[in-house]
Amino acid sequence: MTATLRACGTPLAEAYDLALVDLDGVAYAGHLPIEHAAASLVAARERGLAQVFVTNNASREPEDVAGQLSELDIPTRPDDVMTAAQACAALLRTRLEPGARVLVVGGAGLVTAVRKAGFDVVRSAQDDPAAVAQGYAAELGWHDLAEAAYAVAAGAWHVASNRDMSLPTARGFAPGNGALVAAVVAATGVEPDSAGKPAPTMYRLAVDEHGAERPLVIGDRLDTDLAGARSAGYPGLHVLTGVSSARDAVLASPGLRPDFVGADLRSLLEPHPAPEQEDGWWRCGGRAARVVDDRLELDREGPAGIDLVRAACAAAWDAVDAGTRLDAESVPDLQG
User: Residues 17, 22, 164, 294: which is the catalytic one?
Assistant: First the structure.
């Protein structure tokens, strides 16, 4: 595995044919737009980059997601949306025959996806379901989790739409589907299979449906979006507009590292230089970083920005991969 970022001599929007775009933290923030997101995505489409919006949210219908994006000046069709609910239904099809009973613990999006996949949706463990499909919905309560636990304890296959422990809201981070799944796991001792990111299921479904040859994953979370890119074998762009920070990228373990880093979605419209090693320093665009005595050092000349983030990533990854125990306290908060 490479210890540095990839180089791309042309804008990413011209080098790749399909962008697998995360939603919250990338295309929008809750119900609010993210600066430069809409204009950049539209411009990338004009350069030939098709886009599928891939979300771990299993509670919403693709039509609802497409409507929200369109209202934010990102024209989107339902077919341009791939949800964890659709991935969950696809995972169920790998083991269950059409007509099998599935206890759905989740929102309307998951119910629709499971029904469209040909399964009989039930609401109680007493209906003897072959599987439990669990996804987030704000209205879920103790009764719903109890039914899931009863069914799993009786032998039903437990499939989670995703295992995100937190969910971004306008007021901060709230418990996500992973936290609710954890309650069922605590009650049953059974670990579920997961369809959402970081599993590669959604990415591969989207790529296959669109016949893409050069897909690019775009996300803000290293532990889901970019880990899923690694799992699928697709290059990933980490944008610094959401959950995972530039500092997180510098400290990322190999399985979570992005191939490209950008301050925001304008980075789709730009070439990406790769850091290069020279005289013990990793240099990128006039900025440099190195690791000395287990500590990250940054040069003190030049403007702060994404090139310094790139140089710091390369220096830290190279040192860690060579066996250095990098002192995390030496890594400052970096701004893209």
Answer: 22
The model's pLDDT over 286-327, given as tens digits with 9 standing for 90+, comes to 999 999 999 999 998 767 799 999 999 999 999 999 999 999
Q: How confident is the model over 118-160, as pLDDT tens digits? A: 999 999 999 999 999 999 999 999 999 999 999 999 999 999 9
Rounded distance between C-alpha atoms, residue 77 and residue 199, angstroms: 24
Do 169 and 242 lie in one domain? The reply is: no
22 is a catalytic site residue: yes
Reference 268, options 14, 5, 51, 1; nearest CA is 14
Domain boundary among 141, 176, 194: 194
Of the residues 24, 144, 164, 307, which is catalytic? 24
**Residue range of the domain that includes 103:** 85-194
The pTM (predicted TM-score) of the whole model is 0.89
Q: Are 58 and 138 in contact (CB under 8 A)?
A: no
Report the domain count for the chain: 3
Out of 244, 269, 294, pick the residue that ends a domain.
Answer: 269
